[in-house]
Each structure stands twice: as C-alpha cells, then as structure tokens.
Amino acid sequence: MLLSVEHLTVCYDKAMLLNDVSVEVDDKEMVSLVGPNGAGKSTLLRSITGLVAWEREITKRSTQGDILIEGSVSFKGERIDKMPAHEIVKMGLVLCPERRRPFREMNVYDNLLAGAYLIKDRATILRAFEEVYTLFPRLKERKNQVSGTLSGGEQQMLAIGRALMAQPELLCIDEPSTGLAPIARNEVFETIRRIHKTGRTVLLVEQEVSTVFKMASRNYVLSSGKIVGHGKGEDLLQDEVIRRSYLGL
Questions:
Q1: Is residue 55's pLDDT more than 70?
Q2: Is residue 157 within 8 Å of residue 138, measured between CB atoms?
C-alpha cells in the first residue's frame, strides 16, 4: 500500500469537514475521489500533503476558530501526519493544487524550475524538464512567456508540469478541470491518462464523474465529509442512491 489514510477527522471550530474518512491507494494505481462542492475533497488532499496543521487536541487558535484533526496518514509505510509539507514532498508525495496557482509574474521555465526546488542533482532536473516538455510541448514553446498571460488550459498544464518537476511517486491532482473549456478539459484529462501510463501513481480529485470513472481503477465518493461509496465506476453508477443523491446523475 503506497498511501493509507485511516479514520481521518477534521474539525474547524464547530464545523466537521471530514468525518472518519479512510482511503487507500496502491502503487501504480489511479484512484479518484469525487463528490459535490463542499464535500471535503480539497480538505482531504491538504491534510494528506501537510498543508493543514495537525493538532491532536483543540488547542490551536486560527482565524477560523479551533482546529482539531484526528486519524493517521501513512505513505510508503511511514507515518507522515506530523511531517511538514516540504518533508512530505521529499518523500515523493506531491500536490497539484486546485485553480492552478502559477507564480503569475514568472515565466513558464522559472515556474517549472520552482517545482524542482528540493532536487539538488542537475541531471535529475534536466530529465524532469525533458519529461514535462514531452508531455506538454506547448510549455516548451512558451517557456519564456509570463505565466499570468497563459490561457486557463495552459496554466493547468503548467501546474501539473510544475508538480511533475518534483518527481513524485504519488501525484495528487485537485480539480484539474475547474474553469476550463471542454476542449482544454479533455486535453488535460488525456494528459493525466498519459502520466499514469508512465507508471506514476495518481490520486485524482474531480467533479467530472463520467470522465474520471472511466480513468480510475477505483473510486471514492465523498459527501458531507463522509465516504458514502467506494468501488469501480461501473458499480457505483448502478447504485441509484449514489447516482441521485451524491453524484447528481
């Protein structure tokens, strides 16, 4: 088992964002996590990748109120739920965030190079550039272009490319189709398929159920902070309760 999330509960003040969530991802697998807006999908990814500070007791004050996180996250057999985000990246678990978030004033090349900031070996960095430019020839064409002037689809390519520069063993991708035109969306999904075929493990968070169910070997359905369904896409689509209540189909 490459990634194991066990009984994860996340509360901000009196709001329970995740309630006893358990998720597993095997090596070389593509797993999807789907559900409506506000289901807790992004909170789950942020908790896995160290972007939410873990507190075992309600002791930490924030602008949202009190924070409480319980449960465990293990990656490659090692507990990572108390590790800082940069140490988790070093282990090979990398997040491609929602809404792309490029360094808008920097050009494409420098954005990609920033993704490799923890890699010290120049040869590895050059190989990473070669991989990204093979997957995204448009990024090579636009390597000197300021990232903020790219189209939405190109910025999503850049976000995925920047995450790949860290040479992840597990790539977590959060809502890659958000705000994209249909042609750009299809191009992004096809690239994610190609990334998986190269042997990388992928955890894909999405709302485009019909597309990701065809891509992923297993799927988790998250609603109101709980896992309400788990299995192959064709099996989940035959469950009328899940189709109507949680997938909006």
A1: no
A2: yes
